[in-house]
């Protein structure tokens, strides 16, 4: 395990943005009405918002960032750090964070970096931004986490295509040594699990070829499960499930033990929104009360790295927060990679939810 803490950093606001293209599970042509209901019951996914192919993760993150910057009344030239976490960048190069710096009108002195991580990416991003703020003269940072992962799925693949929605998020983070705080992290990686969630072709290891776009049946003995291409997302559900139900509880327990805390003092557990069955298994293993583990997956599907901040926004955007909330966030998945953090969300936290409309 990799346990560490960061002090005197605070989340001031969280915003989320999704495409305005709504897809309901019951309307998918790949399912009969009965199969759609069974899928929704097992995964918890009733609907998703997906890109039409013209909207990128950077577009959604840009809109979320603009909204939260305006709500906080931050001056753009005062933003010192911009981290973009995504597995659907605009280009292979240049880095999308560079493009967002310019598009948002941030200072040319802004520290910009892309991180290619998925389901654990929000936690990794929080750890990086907070460390930069704590250990430098930087004062304000933006963590932009988003994906249009639906564009990497085969519309012929019943095991993957209906799972993923698209979203972009922006988290505004500020250093303030006059207001003590402590974030406790547990982070880990197991690259031996690379085959569990993978897009085979398109990178430098396996360049895109003509036959990269040929469809292959997912299971030769079961053609009804669908088909995909080498440029589409492959997901081994059993391997991912076995990894998640062991790693996520252990990561959360590591933080609780390291800090001498207990499940009972935590107000909310924000888990990566993988699927309902997997998350409920994790919740029950930890003996977390149902109301302490909010879900956004029913409305947005699995939004990869954006799922934790999106869940925070959905839960808190219309609530009057009476006190600071002690929370644990836990992301787990592609890599294989995982991360958890325990922190306080302040009662002054600002949230925003918006929909991206194509002009």
List keywords for this structure.
5-stranded mixed beta sheet; single chain; 359 residues; 8 helices; alpha/beta; 6-stranded mixed beta sheet; 27% helix; globular
Describe this structure in words.
With 359 residues, this protein is an alpha/beta fold. 27% of the residues lie in helices and 27% in strands. It has eight helices and 17 strands. The strands form five sheets. It has a six-stranded mixed beta sheet, sandwiched between helices. A five-stranded mixed beta sheet has the order 1-9-16-15-14, sandwiched between helices. Strand 5, helix 3 (96-104) and strand 6 (111-115) form a beta-alpha-beta unit. It is globular and about 60 Å long. The mean pLDDT is 94.
Short description:
By secondary structure, this protein is α/β, with parallel strands linked by helices. The protein has 8 helices and 17 strands.
